[in-house]
Design a protein that fits this description.
Mean pLDDT: 91
CATH superfamily: NAD(P)-binding Rossmann-like Domain
Strand order of the largest sheet: 3-2-1-4-5-6-7
Largest sheet: 7 strands, mixed
Structural class: alpha/beta
Order of helices and strands: EHEHEHEHEHEEH
Number of domains: 1
Oligomer: single chain
Radius of gyration: 14 Å
Strand content: 15-25%
Helix content: 25-40%
CATH class: Alpha Beta
Amino acid sequence: MKRTVLIVGLGLIGGSIALAIRKEHNVHIRGFDISEEQMRMALSLKVIDEATPSIEEGVKAADLIIFATPVIKTEQLIQDLASYELKLDAIVTDVGSTKLRIVKQAECLKEKGVTFIGGHPMAGSHKTGVEAAREHLFENAFYILTPAKGTDLRAIINYKIG
């Protein structure tokens, strides 16, 4: 069965992650962005397979949830996840540059059977938006994963995306 990835935030980083995943894995990529225009553009550029009408709807079937949003927004969205129906054994990650408050917010996901692991890609561009996304943006770049104390690393190591 094909895995489902949800990417929240379809700008340069979120779009590039989607393209990189698509290049290496046979998955269904759903996307959400507060900008309807960015979602339409992501669909037309085949960055995502489907635009989801809401984050709450998008997370229900997601095996992997990636927040490519500003840190403050990510904190809020992770808190919102606590009240959403999530797939058991889903993995949630982010691309924020700071982790302390995000990791603290993500503690609520453990009791839902979901693993959170922070991420910080060390790549970027002077360009913005999904139209600037490139599947090779992360090649030869560090992508730092930041597991919190008590994170079940087996859930991450044994995870197969597709």
